[in-house]
Write a structure and sequence with these properties.
The complex is a heterodimer of chains A (317) and B (233).
Chain A: H1 2-18, H2 38-71, H3 84-97, H4 104-125, H5 133-155, H6 158-169, H7 178-196, H8 198-204, H9 208-213, H10 218-240, H11 246-258, H12 266-286, H13 295-313
Helix pairs in contact in A: 1-12, 2-7, 2-10, 2-11, 2-12, 3-4, 3-5, 3-6, 3-10, 4-5, 4-10, 7-10, 11-12, 11-13, 12-13
Chain B: E1 2-8, E2 16-21, E3 26-30, H1 36-43, E4 52-54, E5 57-58, H2 64-70, E6 71-74, H3 87-94, H4 102-109, H5 124-138, E7 142-146, H6 154-165, E8 172-176, H7 180-186, E9 189-194, E10 197-202, H8 204-207, H9 210-217, E11 221-224, E12 227-230
Parallel strand pairs in B: 3-8, 3-9, 6-7, 7-8
Antiparallel strand pairs in B: 1-2, 1-4, 4-5, 9-10, 11-12
Helix pairs in contact in B: 3-5, 4-5
Classes of the chains: A mainly alpha (317), B alpha/beta (233).
Amino acid sequence: MKALRYLLPPTALLILLVAPFVGEVPLHLARLGETQSIDHRIFFELRLPRVLLAFLVGGILSLGGLLFQSLFRNPMSTPFTLGVASGATLLSAVAILTGLGLYAPLFAFVGAMSTVLLLYLIGRGAEGYGTDTLLLAGITLSFFYAAALMVAYAFSDIEQNFEIMRFTMGSLEISGYGKVAMLFAVALAFVLYSYRKREGLRMLLVSHDFAHLQGMDVRAFTLGMLTLTSAAVGAAVSIAGPVGFVGLIVPHILRILFAQSAQRLILPSFFYGGIFLVACDLVARTLPVQIQLPIGVVTAFVGAPFFIYLIIRRRHL
Amino acid sequence: MAIVVNTHSDTILHDISLKIPQGEHRCIVGANGAGKSTLAKVLCAIRPSEAVSVKGRSLHRLSPTERKKEINYIPPRLEIYDPYLRVRDYLEMSRHGTRFGIDEAMEITGITPLQEHRCLTLSSGEAQLMMTAGALLHDARYTIFDEPAANLDPLHTRRLFGILRNEQLFGTRIVITHHLDLAFHLGYDILCMEEGCIVFDGSSEDFFAQKALQRRYHGAIARHADHIVTEFL
């Protein structure tokens, strides 16, 4: 485990550096400097933005998972298990269905926020976030959203149907830097805000009563964190679609590897979450199969066995 | 200055009114389920109530920063979600006053050797002493200790007694306890609760008078050679 701890940072950097150079079409390094060459265009217009997008989406989803697990004091809580990402997905599908696809990010944000608000109200009604109530409520909402998504499919024409399906499968295919720049701004605000609030998070990780007694407005703090997390996750989902597992696996792996409290894992969660998705995308792009696998499938296939391995081995690490 | 409760009622407490002036410590005693801990949570606004006021202002309406200076509550058991939190981390978060440093608070409570231990690996007695150190560092005007001796062995109980008796260490103390001998030797005024109501609010001498004990505890508790003991037979 110690060796893994030391190997992780250089491996992560290596993945990040190598990822844009690897893909279906082999690149000639010498031609990258020639602005008119196809190699230059593939590298700068397709591969680099894709890697950057994967990094930002992975970082946001991973940090979102860490924060949800801390705020709800439940190791299974992530924006995905609690239905927040499903809410964003559904509303993005509604945007496509109503011909407002351009406003999908806004719709995703509304979907994520309204889900969080619902969960918050349910949590207040059930007097506490530590209970399984929220998780069950989140799972129920996810099922509800899945059913509503089916209705969206039923009402869509073939073109919309294909667009919604592509979106729900998750994809990191982009060209250019417009969306990357937008998500970079969101990610920066998300990381800085979370980092500034790390002391509050540390108090909440003792208990809500403890945080209250230390002079924290627990309700305002929780609402602020949930709002920003949902906004960031909504933005990531609106661009890349619902990519599961990242927020569940990465924070847990980091916690086991580094044996640190959540407030010390804010920056590592973002960084390694980003690396995790870049690595998964690398796998998706380089598999010797005819079709490119949806990124959500790869994250689950890569992440789930490793997570189970860690759970089994944890006592011996 | 005083903390005042003006007719508070909820599902557990009934028509609670009391006044604890600053510097006048209290012991709250009563049977299990009498509402002692609930009253403590009302007093520190974990259970918000408009009936509680400090300096003539509703405690519930104070800003969180003002509230933390006024009152602190030490629960009977340590509740921590984070398995990686160490004793020193806990104490760092508890430090709001300037009278004590972390090392000094650990020395007073005898937990210096535990400072790098994870909080969840502490025994219940050690956790109690850590929370007491946290209360020293918090340095609120009022500190409520909920069953501070429940998990302590005799030697640690003696140390805690010395800490609670030391006028230099805390502001006004409100000690909830079943340990009647501890309450007796602390000598604070007694507030006794039964079924959500205050049934006695007076001096320690009056409460621990032999006849009063006989009447209240039907012979189960007695005063012998300056100690309050349980009569098992």
